[in-house]
Amino acid sequence: MPDFPDALLLARIQFAFTVSFHFLFPAVTIGLASYLAVLEGLWLKTGREHYMDLFRYWIKIFALVFGMGVVSGIVMSYQFGTNWAVFSDRAGPIIGPLMAYEVLTAFFLEAGFLGVMLFGMRRVGKGLHFTATLMVALGTFMSAFWILSVNSWMQTPAGYALNANGQFIAAGSWLAIVFNPSFPYRLVHTLSAAYLTTAFLVGGVGAWHLLKDRENPRARLMFSMAMWMAAIVAPLQIVLGDLHGLNTLQHQPVKVMAMEGHFDSHPEGAPLILFGIPNSAEGRIDHALQIPKLSSLILKHDLDAPLAGLDTVPAADRPPVGIVFWSFRIMVGLGLLMAALGAASLLARWRGRLYDWRWLHRWALLMAPSGLVAVLAGWITTEVGRQPWTIHGLMRTADSVSPLAAPAVAASLVAFVIVYFAVFGTGVLYILKLMAKPPLLHEPAEPRIPERAAGTTPAAALQTDGGAPR
């Protein structure tokens, strides 16, 4: 019988499971909040009801996704105390304030205006309602800002010192901590990925309804807006990804070695390995399909530039190459397909066939979940590629875990898996059911809610005559 997994491995699996499940929801809400703001702004500017129909269609989906994102995110914060208590103790003086800023600025901003956005269309003026929508969109951006600052500091720590208890504390200005070396690149790359995720989700839903009724004007508008975003942002994302990769090469070269599959150093130009099977035991890529010197050209902009390999790194400091190698290729491959679909939509638009080419609509429908898969692959590349470090180069993952017994972690992991798939699986199915319905002319607005608490009691239904009920 194989040995039972140790507590460290189980804790890592548990956090990976919960964070992967969680990030699917913010990846949608970040882009969808901005999309709703654009729809409402265009409605206010043009008066076209189609924009408001789409706003009402997507705000119901946004509310569900937002709620599931909040609930799934709360669980992760508890794991810092249960499974990663040593990390929390040592990094808390830096990680804690940054996460508190996220709650005080982003979450409170979202929570404060979300009710107005969801239920205030009939109760406040158009300007105030639009302001609420903008504030929710701003809140999603600020939430991403602070969370990515925390994670980026763990990737490229800066502005810290160690106190007598071995804790990481701020040394001087907090700006060096917040705006650490990788943060700007990771922020724009992640935000653009969220916008692309939303664009392809919206485009896929629009394509679904065009395949059923190509004359539906709201489906046409939905699909057209999504394809504009794909055509513009997908090529930009490739450029941003390249800049992020160059920054990673500078600060985390071992991660790039694993991404590229470079077990050996290449003093006269490294090949770009397109596909292959990483063989960590033998230190090579089996059955490699590669292009000579192209990796050096991409990473160093010089065909003959030398690139170091994993043979220069102690085995204990190497990440799991197979996972990083393939997750990186999934992310890049999907990014190229996104850019190709955006280019195809431009051709269809130029030919006046954007709403007629059925193959384009089927392609867009197949690509609907591509953004979600790509952001997961990107996060796997980032987080697994950082191993074996929790704080890169300073604190190992093995030294960060709580002193728990493996069965205790295994029990909570099993509970998480069952509850997550039951609760969030049901929520996702309901969202898909909403998406399957076409956006209607004069899409129903938010449901009416009681004007006062007394309206919910049976006494409010009683008729009175001279003060006496009858």
From TrEMBL:
It is found in: Cell inner membrane; Cell membrane. It holds the Pfam family Cyt_bd_oxida_I. The chain crosses the membrane at residues 15-36, 57-78, 98-120, 127-148, 193-211, 223-240, 323-348, 360-380, 404-432. It is a multi-pass membrane protein. It comes from the Bacteria. Keywords: Cell membrane, Electron transport, Heme, Iron, Membrane, Metal-binding, Transmembrane, Transmembrane helix, Transport. InterPro entries: Cyt-d_ubiquinol_oxidase_su_1. Residues 447-470 are annotated as: Disordered. PANTHER family: CYTOCHROME BD MENAQUINOL OXIDASE SUBUNIT I-RELATED (PTHR30365:SF14), CYTOCHROME D UBIQUINOL OXIDASE (PTHR30365). Belongs to the cytochrome ubiquinol oxidase subunit 1 family. This is Cytochrome ubiquinol oxidase subunit I. The lineage of its organism: Bacteria, Pseudomonadati, Pseudomonadota, Betaproteobacteria, Burkholderiales.
